[in-house]
Design goal:
The chain has 313 residues and is α/β, with parallel strands linked by helices. The chain is built from ten helices and 13 strands. The protein has an eight-stranded mixed beta sheet with strand order 1-2-5-6-7-8-9-10. A three-stranded antiparallel beta sheet has the order 11-13-12. The protein has a two-stranded parallel ribbon with strand order 3-4. Bound molecules: iron/sulfur cluster (SF4).
């Protein structure tokens, strides 16, 4: 399913997700990625789905939500990969604007040096760009980029975009312990954010099972240090997100397909799924069956069980 949710988002309220990219196609293979390692590394844009199909799927989803008295605060391009790899992103945003719901795009910014990517993102109301590191070594270790990408071009592209963009621009920096949370890295990130001047700079830590099991969140003291160091350099609001989002996922009648769509971009904790199934009086056996069929996988992270879609299926 291309349209999924809405799912609760700390930053966007109830966010109706658009997954405009085939499973795990990305220009990065971040060590902390919550949907696993990248199967298909790609750094050039391609056609994936027909923009009209994306529009029609979204329309069905919105009709379904309306019938149940639900509403979305944003329609968000949040793919199980990098949404700007889609050459039709601009056309899709134009189509989806007809629903009169704000459009958000969460991008890793790796293609922001391309003029057509900048043009497409200009059409969105809210854009989040990734700034995990600004020096080659840390960037290479944390984001594991496609070999054709160049961090200097990405930094320049991000700045150029920030200067022309009229919507709400925010940044997100995911910190992984021992990889990009040292002083040198944080100073570099702070200096870059000071030039970008986002409406808000978010600092995140891995709250769901990461692609590499040895990736850990920084300690609380390290996180405080990071927060203070970035805040002193940047004249904008800085916020740390260290907990998982809420539990108010929307499910239509076809709960299995809805669940699979959500789990392909967003691992969900066992207790959240249990509550949802109880509410609908559905036996948990449906989840066990999905695990047995290999469609979803179980992961333990920070002593909690999560489910995530098996991207190989
Ligand atoms: S976190 Fe985002 S940018 Fe990084 S590998 Fe996953 S989908 Fe790609």
């Amino acid at each position: 399913m291309i349209a999924f949710g809405p799912i609760p988002s700390r930053r966007l309220g109830q966010s109706l997700g658009i997954n405009n990219i085939p499973p795990k196609t990305c220009s990065y293979s971040c060590v902390y990625c919550q949907i696993g390692r990248t199967n298909k590394m790609q750094a050039s844009r391609s056609k994936f789905y027909d923009p009209k199909d994306i529009f029609l799927e979204t329309k069905l989803k919105i009709n379904d939500m309306n019938a149940k008295g639900e509403k979305a605060d944003y329609i968000t391009f949040v793919a199980d990969g990098e949404p700007t790899l889609d050459i039709n992103l601009g056309a899709e945003i134009e189509f989806l604007k007809q629903f009169d719901i704000k459009i958000a795009v969460i991008t890793n910014a790796s293609l922001l040096w391309m003029d057509d990517v900048k043009r497409d993102l200009m059409k969105a109301d809210w854009v989040s760009i990734k700034v995990d590191a600004v020096d080659f070594d840390a960037w290479y270790k944390v984001d594991r980029p496609h070999g054709n990408l160049d961090i200097e071009r990405i930094k320049k592209g991000s700045l150029d975009f920030a200067q022309c963009y009229k919507g709400v621009l925010v940044t997100e920096t995911m910190l992984a312990s021992g990889i990009n949370d040292n002083k040198e890295c944080l100073d570099g990130i702070g200096m870059h954010l000071a030039k970008i001047k986002p409406a808000k700079a978010y600092i995140l830590v891995p709250t769901r099972p990461p692609a590499e099991s040895n990736v850990k969140r920084p300690s609380t003291s390290k996180l405080k240090e990071a927060f203070n160091s970035i805040r002193t350099m940047v004249d904008v609001e800085v916020e740390c997100i260290t907990e998982d989002e809420g539990e108010s996922f929307f499910f239509a009648d076809d709960i299995i397909n809805d669940l699979l769509s959500i789990l392909s971009v967003h691992p969900v904790r066992e207790e959240v799924i249990d509550k949802l199934l109880n509410k609908r009086k559905i036996n948990k056996k449906v989840i066990d069956d999905l695990v047995k069929k290999g469609l979803i996988k179980e992961f333990i992270y920070e002593n909690r069980k999560f489910y995530r879609k098996n991207q190989e299926k």
